[in-house]
Write a structure and sequence with these properties.
single chain; alpha+beta; 5 helices; 73% helix; rod-shaped
Length: 198
């Protein structure tokens, strides 16, 4: 019977050890599975956070690029306006000097009238310098063939001239400001294309 007890104890111990091993293996397998699951979840959370971060980074980059584009556009517009202003300030004295010459004004008047219909009635206003030097008789000498009738009107405050077509209320003005404005309108799109290309 002692052997039976010893055998029984040994069997119990072996079965206990075997059961403990099985239980330990089961607990270890469950722990491993849980650890792997936690690692997968952590990796998934990390990947999701990284993707969100990447999306936010892309959105931030797009916002910054859009803002930089607007800033660049505004800077180009300011540069364009400054160049136009500088060009006008450089051009106007030359135009004023040219329009202070009776010969230049005569030539311009003849060219302007040539481009109009014959038989029109015009009212002429001259700038202060030319107005003093040109009289109605000289203006009439410009149009000896009766291409148009011209009467003198009140003098302009600036150099140059203004022709008003009496019947149709049309005005042709040649002054430093009007010439500079025409030049600005010609210059502006070219300047914009040039600045956009750079």
């Amino acid at each position: 019977m002692a052997q039976d007890v010893a055998s029984f104890a040994r069997i119990l111990r072996e079965e206990g050890i075997e059961a403990a091993k099985t239980e330990a293996d089961k607990i270890t397998a469950e722990a491993r599975a849980r650890a792997e699951s936690l690692v997968r979840e952590a990796v998934a959370v990390q990947r999701k956070k990284q993707e969100e971060g990447n999306r936010e980074l892309v959105q931030m980059r797009q916002r910054v690029e859009a803002e930089l584009h607007l800033v660049a556009r505004d800077v180009i517009l300011q540069v364009k306006k400054r160049i136009e202003h500088l060009a006008m300030s450089l051009l106007q004295p030359s135009v004023k000097a040219a329009l202070s010459s009776p010969e230049v004004v005569k030539t311009c008047l003849v060219e302007v009238i040539k481009g109009q219909q014959t038989g029109q009635n015009w009212e002429l206003s001259l700038g202060p310098t030319v107005g003093k030097q040109l009289s109605e008789q000289i203006v009439q000498q410009l149009f000896p063939r009766g291409e148009a009738t011209v009467q003198m009107a009140e003098a302009l405050r600036e150099e140059g001239f203004a022709l008003r077509q009496i019947k149709e209320q049309m005005v042709i003005e040649v002054t430093p400001e009007s010439v500079s404005d025409v030049f600005r309108r010609i210059l502006s799109p070219e300047l914009e294309r040039y600045l956009q290309a750079k």
